[in-house]
Amino acid sequence: MGLRDWFKSGSSDKKTEDAEASAREEETRQKEAFAELQDTKTDEALSLFDEEETPQQEEVLVAAPYDAGDASLEDLLAEEDESFTHVDEVDVVDVASLDDPYLKASIEGDVPEAVVFDEDENSPSV
Q1: Closest-CA residue to 2 (of 10, 113, 79)
Q2: Which contiguous run of DSSP H or E holds residue 85?
Q3: 65-87 pLDDT, tens per residue?
């Protein structure tokens, strides 16, 4: 048994050494790829500082038709623009002249009459 174990142990040591070497190489490749990615991102970030800033457009101020401190009552009550506050309102003078919506109503999903079952129906099974 000792001789057989010695042969097996020699081949497994080579396999573990190969696996460790390939793991080290993979780790080295990953570190290099990460360093390259970091350099790329750093260059991109630094290039943002080199760009010229676009000037902001100045806001165009529109003068009010009156100054609130100097406004008179006529200025405030003048209706230059159309007001849409009361456009959809309806004035009802006589409520009796309106149609009753319940006169034409129909019952849906419910039976308006009492239901009578025939005597041939099955009795309760309890």
Answers
A1: 10
A2: none
A3: 666 677 677 766 776 666 667 77
